[in-house]
Amino acid sequence: MTLLSDAAAGPAAITMELTAGLGGQAVTRQASEIAVQLFARLPLDAELEILDANGRNRLPVQLNEQQTKTLWITLTPKDSDTPVRIRLYRRSADNSNHNDFLLEKQLRFTLSDTPLTLVSSRIPASGTLGRHLPPGNTRPVILTPDHLPHSPRAYAGIHALVIEPVSLASLSPAQYRALGHYLKGCGILLLSQTSESVLNRVRSIAGCHGDFVQPFTSLSRLSQQLSELRAAQPPKLPGAKALAPLLQNRFKLPLLTSISLYLGGYILFMALLGWQLKQQRYLLLLPLLASAAGAFAWRGEPGQQQFRWTEAQSGDRFARSTALLLLGGERR
Description:
Layout lengths: L1 E2 L10 E7 L4 E3 L4 E9 L3 E9 L2 E9 L3 E9 L8 E7 L9 E9 L1 E3 L3 E5 L5 H5 L8 E4 L15 E6 L1 H5 L3 H12 L4 E4 L3 H8 L9 E4 L5 H11 L7 H37 L9 H12 L6 E8 L8 E8 L5
Parallel strand pairs: 3-10, 11-12, 11-13, 13-14, 14-15
Antiparallel strand pairs: 1-9, 2-4, 4-7, 5-6, 5-8, 8-9, 16-17
């Protein structure tokens, strides 16, 4: 993680500090997190602008007098050389787009194609831990509990999580929800220094019958344990490219129908036009007929369609699901 200096000096009454989540590590094309800590001496109606690999996003923020606010923001770093940029604006009183620029800070992540193994447990340092992990298959990241992911998206590049009950008990509600989403998707979690009752409680909120929530007792078995669990995990859910062909045929029929109706309406319109030229009193109906024909021909189906793919094991309490939203081009 590299923290750069301000691109512009803001008023002394307002400060902004950035901290990279996941130890400043990220997986290429996967989401990570940053903590944005804001302080204002006076009440401030502000807006954060986040510039990352997905473009530009804005988030309204209300700061109270003499109070510090910390926001965990999920984003996707572009690459190791391109910093994520966070800008702070004072929102205009008339809610226009002319906001007053206050501060900008930048943060760099270290990106790699190798998934991460998050560790929040009292075990040896990352150098020692790294020697017990499958070479080239994962990168160990030692984190305090408060720096574990706060959103489900931040678990996208996570290979496994090693944690102890003390760390588990100190998670915030947002972190619990994110962890629950990860476990329901059959994510790997190794519990160190735990009891059978704690293990069973965690398994009860996990997918795949809790098979991927296991006790962790020895560094010497860590590599083998992770390899076995990884091999047994269900395959990833299909992505957008795999799901898109399943919806293509659903768009072809309405499109052909619309074209046929349009051509039929055009022929009918021309026939009526030839007849109406002899019946001058009906010429006033032409605009109405043309509008009705156009609206009927291009009515189409709803402008968007959603396709959901769901997988579950027999008898499992949870299912893994992904969805694809397609916007049709039939409406005009």
